[in-house]
Design brief:
Helices cover 2% and strands 37% of the residues. With 393 residues, it is an all-beta fold. The protein has one domain (41-392): Beta-galactosidase, Chain A, domain 5.
Length: 393
């Protein structure tokens, strides 16, 4: 675990309220049993077939308080996440699709596991142990999220499910063979999602390799705490436990510097709406930048799992806190959503209709010797934990 810079911001954890029980797709919420008395379950169903005929399965996790998370084997992807508002009504707060076809053809990484290396690698090249590797430049001129057919586009195997006292969990596994998307080594990956009875969606990553290779996995859900398809996220109030960030060039590759957020539109060390200063990040026609946030923050704090971010949505009272042991977090404000994608229930996803907070090592770390290393060597184990903790106020 990479030690972070000294803690500069303290954020108190919010208390949970009692949620009501509602099944995804049902009508108005009904009153729930006493908190913690519901049935913890994992149920499996079919989610169709990919264009090459591979079957895709869906798994619905339910915790003791009625929260629900739906995941599919394609990309180890979270497709639905049902959490209560301040009145106890469940709502689905992640963008996504109802069918596998759209995940294959339309998805801008909705809810998936990204890698081998999430985020960007400059010009799709890196040198490791004296050998240069060339990757796909699928985000011209750079490599993005593992390439043209990254982990998000692979069908994973379910290797474990559990209905226990702590909640419901599922483990997805995938063997990325040597040379896949240009990366060296056979990389064995396990991703475990746990919907805890403390109303957390916990994601634990583990990977091992037989050759040195870069690894930087993350989760790529687009969140809208008002509910998926329920308008812009610019009024969401965000706090980041990050007093610095990694500036980038015009293609979003870090310059290698680490700068303070003080006095910039990037300062969320105190609660502020995502849209409050977004006007200072306008579109740029010359570079194709649609404007908005797409930036890696350097998290404050010590080693271990600590609070990285807190998001509050006023109309529903929903609060999402993110805890992690990673050194960075990427804020993305759904800048490239443009209304051309229709998601679940036919909802149109316009610009800024979702936000991402991706816990990670820094972008282009493989080419940045001053950044925390992303190299995994044989005999070592890559681990990464990200917790999404839900409450209301």
């Amino acid at each position: 675990m990479i030690q972070r810079v000294a803690l500069s911001v303290f954020m108190a954890l919010a208390m949970f309220t009692l949620p009501a029980c509602q099944t995804p797709g049902d009508g108005p919420a009904t009153s729930s049993p006493k908190k913690g008395t519901g049935t913890v379950s994992v149920t499996q169903s079919d989610f169709g077939k990919t264009k090459d005929g591979t079957a895709v399965e869906a798994y619905l996790l339910t915790n003791a308080n009625g929260l629900k998370a739906k995941l599919i084997t394609y990309g180890a992807t979270l497709t639905e996440l049902w959490v209560p508002d301040r009145k106890g009504n469940l709502g689905d707060i992640v963008l996504g699709f109802d069918n596998i076809k759209q995940y294959e053809t339309d998805s801008p990484y909705f809810g998936c596991t990204t890698g081998r290396v999430a985020n960007r690698i400059a010009k799709g090249k890196f040198t490791l142990n004296g050998k240069e590797y060339t990757l796909a430049t699928n985000n011209d001129p750079n490599h993005l999220h593992g390439g043209k057919v990254g982990l998000d586009k692979r069908v994973w195997k379910v290797t474990n499910t559990n209905e226990g006292a702590d909640g419901a969990s599922i483990t997805f596994s995938y063997l990325s063979p040597d040379g896949e998307e240009g990366y060296p080594g056979n990389l064995h990956i396990d991703v475990t999602y746990t919907l805890t009875n403390n109303d957390e969606l916990r994601i634990d990553y583990k990977a091992t390799t037989d050759q040195a290779t870069p690894v930087n996995l993350t989760h790529h859900s687009y969140f809208n705490l008002a509910g998926q398809g329920q308008g812009s996220i610019l009024n969401h109030e965000l706090t980041l436990n990050a007093s610095s960030y990694t500036p980038t060039d015009a293609t979003l590759i870090p310059t290698g510097e680490i700068k303070a957020v003080t006095g910039t539109p990037f300062d969320f060390t105190k609660p502020a709406t995502i849209g409050g200063r977004i006007r200072y990040l306008p579109p740029n026609k010359d570079t194709g930048d649609p404007g908005g946030y797409d930036l890696n923050y350097v998290l404050d704090g010590e080693e271990g799992i600590t609070l990285a971010a807190s998001v509050y949505e006023n109309s529903t009272g929903r609060v999402m806190q993110i805890l992690t042991d990673e050194p960075g977090i990427q804020l993305y404000s759904g800048n490239f959503l443009d209304g051309t994608i229709k998601g679940k229930e036919g909802k149109v996803y316009n610009k800024h209709y979702g936000f991402c907070l991706e816990t990670q090592h820094f972008p282009d770390s493989i080419n940045q010797p001053k950044f925390p290393s992303v190299v995994l060597n044989p005999g070592d184990t890559y681990t990464h934990t990200c917790i999404h903790k839900f409450s209301t106020r």
